[in-house]
Design a protein that fits this description.
Elements (H helix, E strand, L loop, with lengths): L1 H6 L6 H9 L3 H15 L4 H8 L4 H31 L7 H5 L3 H23 L5 H4 L18 H17 L4 H19 L16 H7 L17 H5 L23 H13 L9
Helix pairs in contact: 2-5, 5-9, 7-9, 7-10
């Protein structure tokens, strides 16, 4: 972060320092999960390695490296800029409302509002106009917690502008946005995990791994369903909730370039250059 601060000295980099500290563990998450799996299944290492490094995992790993090296610093700069723009009076001044709330209530409100915003944005990403950049996230045919990192950089940047931009416009304090980002990141790892958990009755409140796996199915009634990240109540309210049971159907798309990072990164630009967006599959 010192290099960035030197390049743009006029910015307030307190947020970037916090982001750097909070996401310092992102680069070792993959190693931590691998080590835990090896310890628990040390008598069957070959099968474990096949499961924790399935087909397509290399693309996910490259995405993780790009997230740590490139995307996070860019998102930090973007968040600082948006925060400064919001501080100049752009948007509705609701800061007084948020300061009257207790920290716990402010965090809970931010988490819920942010998930509603994310739900709307996620549905937009499944339209033919945004699908070219979002489709990369759905290309993993071996869905696991590692799949959460498989996202196109344009998709990540767009999500920050839409989600965090709207939160800033309604006066949400920066600390709450920061805490919300951390909570959503780690909860997203859980919901992408390859486990059959439906959460039982709690699944009517929170998104479960089974619920999100139905969102990633290759074909069938789960396609175009389950857009929320944390609170399943949004899908229930807008008629997109679908969790008949634990999901065991195939996931991932059948498009070419499944195992090619460069092919998936280039695909939206290729579609734009040829004026032919990918078919709306979801």
């Amino acid at each position: 972060m010192n290099v960035v601060a030197t390049i743009v000295p006029a910015m307030n980099f307190n947020l970037l320092d916090h982001l750097s500290s909070a996401y310092s563990m992102v680069s070792v998450e993959a190693g931590a999960f691998l080590l835990l799996s090896l310890i628990l299944q040390r008598k069957n290492l070959i099968a474990v390695i096949a499961k924790i490094w399935p087909q397509g995992a290399t693309v996910n790993f490259i995405c993780l490296l790009m997230e740590v090296i490139l995307i996070m610093p860019l998102l930090g700069i973007l968040m600082v800029w948006m925060h400064e723009m919001a501080g100049m009076g752009i948007g509705v001044d609701l800061r007084g409302f948020w300061t009257e709330l207790s920290p716990l209530l402010a965090f809970a409100a931010t988490l819920f509002i942010a998930d509603g915003i994310s739900y709307a944005r996620h549905r937009l990403e499944h339209t033919r106009w945004l699908w070219p950049v979002h489709g990369m996230h759905h290309s993993d045919r071996e869905l696991s917690w590692f799949s959460a990192y498989r996202q196109h950089p344009l998709n990540r940047l767009g999500a920050v502008v839409f989600d965090i931009g709207l939160l800033l416009l309604i006066g949400v304090p920066l600390w709450a946005i920061y805490a919300n980002a951390l909570a959503r990141h780690y909860y997203g790892l859980l919901t992408h995990a390859n486990v059959p958990w439906t959460f039982g009755w709690l699944g009517r409140v929170l998104v479960s791994p089974a619920m999100h796996r139905w969102h990633h199915v290759r074909e069938g009634q789960g396609v175009g369903k389950n857009f929320a990240t944390i609170f399943s109540v949004f899908d229930q309210a807008f008629g997109t909730y679908y969790v008949p049971s634990a999901c065991h159907l195939p996931t991932g798309l059948m498009d070419e370039g499944h195992n090619s990072f460069l092919a998936q990164i280039w695909a939206p630009f290729k579609a734009l250059a040829t004026s032919s967006w990918w078919p709306h599959r979801r």
